[in-house]
Fold:
Amino acid sequence: MIKSKTIRILSRKPSYDILIGENLLKKKTNELQLTFTQKKIAIITDKKVNNCQYSNLLDQLRGLKINSHLFLIEPGESSKSWHNLKAVLDWLTELNFDRTDYIIAFGGGVVGDLVSLAANLFRRGINLIQIPTTLLSQVDSSVGGKTAINSGAAKNSIGTFYHPRAVYCDISFLSTLSERDFLSGYAEVFKMALVFDKDFYKFLIENQKLTRARDKKVLMYIIEKSLDLKSKVVEVDETEKEERALLNFGHTFGHALESYFDYSQKLLHGEAVSLGMVLAACFSCQEGYIHQSKVGDIKKHLATMKLPTAITQIDNHKLNVGKILSFIKQDKKVVGNNINLILLKDIGTGFIKRNVSFEKLENYLKVQLD
Ligand SMILES: NC(=O)c1ccc[n+]([C@@H]2O[C@H](COP(=O)([O-])OP(=O)(O)OC[C@H]3O[C@@H](n4cnc5c(N)ncnc54)[C@H](O)[C@@H]3O)[C@@H](O)[C@H]2O)c1
Structure:
C-alpha cells in the first residue's frame, strides 16, 4: 500500500499542506466534510480531464454531502486566456459565490494557473483547493502560488501570487495521462534535480525505466522530492526576488519557443522546457561553467525520456532568431538591454548569471538554431 506524505508550506499565514498519496480524497472524507459543510463548491476542469478522471474524483468524494457546480474549459495552453478568465469570473458571479465558498482547480497546470488567478481576483480572494492531475502540476505548478494567463504572445505575462488552502497530489489521477503529457511533466522534475540536487539527478538516471513505467513508489518519491525542493525555495523567496528564479532554468528559451509555436500541440510546455534546458546548459558550457561531457549526459537523459533536445525534432524550417529574441524580451528577468539567465555551474548547481546582453544572446541563438 502507498503511504501518504504531507509537506507543509510555512511561508503563508495560514500555512497550507500539500498531501501526496493515492486515493487521498477518499482518505480525507471527514476533514473535507467539515471544510465543505454549508459552502458552495465550484469544480473547474478541462474537457479531457472531465472525460478521464471526473468519475474518479466523484467516486472518491462519494459519501460527502456537498453542493457542487462544474465548469469546463477546452484542454490546452490556449485556454490560459482573458476569455476564459472572464467566463469563470462571470460564472462565479452568476452562482452568487462568496469568498468563504471554495473553488477546486481540478486539472493540469493550465487549469491550475487560470483558476488560481480567477480565485485571487474573485471578491479579492476566494478559497482555493488545487487537485492537480498531471505530473507537471503535481511536481511544480500547483505549489508556490503563481497564477497566470497568457496575453497575446506573451507567456504568463498576466498573473499574481495566490496560494491555495490545500493541494492534493493524488497519483491515481495520473493513470490516464498520455505518455507524451507524462514525459512533458517529467522535464520539470529533471529541472529541479539539475538546478538543486545532484543526488536526485543520480536517482533519476538510475530509475529512468521505472519512472517511465510509472512505478508507484518511484512516482511518490519524485513527486515528494520535487515538492520538497520547490517548497524550500518558495518559503525563502515567495515572490521571486532571488533564489526562486532558479526554478526558471530552461524557461526563458522554453517560453519563447512556446510563444513562437503559438502554444500549439506541436510543442508542449515541458517539451519547450526540455529544449530550453539544453540551450541553457550549452550556453553555460560556452561561458566556461559546466563541462561539455555533462551537457552530453543531460541531453542523453532527456532523449531517453523521449524529450526533444534539438529544435529540428520539432520543426525542420529555419527559425527566425529575431522573432524568438522578441519573445525573450517579454521575459520577467529582462533588465534594460540585458537579461538575467539561469545557468549551471555543475549538475545540481544552478545560479543566476546577471546582465547577459541581448546581442550576446542573439549571436548564441544564431549559432545554435541555424
Ligand atoms: N504556476 C506555476 O508555478 C507553473 C509551473 C510550471 C508550469 N506552469 C504552467 O503549467 C502549464 C502546463 O501544465 P501541464 O503540463 O499540466 O498542461 P495541461 O494542463 O495542458 O495538461 C496537459 C494535457 O493533459 C490533459 N490531462 C490533464 N490531466 C489528465 C489526466 N489525469 N488524464 C488524462 N489527461 C489529462 C489535459 O487535458 C491536457 O491536454 C503551462 O501553462 C505552464 O506555464 C505553471
Remarks:
- The chain has two domains: 5-176, 180-369.
